[in-house]
Input
Amino acid sequence: MQRAAGAVVGGVLAVAAVPAVLGAVGFTGAGIAASSLAAKMMSAAAVANGGGVAAGSLVATLQSVGAAGLSTSSNILLGSVGSAFGAWLAGSKKEPPSSPPAEEEKEPQENESQAELPKPPIGSEKQEK
Output
């Protein structure tokens, strides 16, 4: 039951997160937002290609997805991957190990050694004449 819930949550989050993240980066439905990361990416791509953004490049693809959204097949694929990841995360939680039984403190016996206090280093005392 826990894995099924994780799969549903993972799939929904994966499909819903893509438009939100692309919008936050600057790939919006109205185009690339000014002074955004998307604008910087577009500028770098244009400089690298001699003034224009190449068709099929990462910037062009992200601009298309930001404006029109993902296709149905892309949403299905993304939801499937998100569901698998969510189910894996939900099933990977381990219960914390039980703590060992508490041991009673006992007093040291005659044959057990007790820790001695450290002695001051030799030569640290002032010698008087």
The longest strand covers residues 27-28. Helices lie at 2-25, 37-48, 58-68, 72-91. The CA atoms of residues 13 and 82 lie 7 Å apart. The chain has a mean pLDDT of 82.
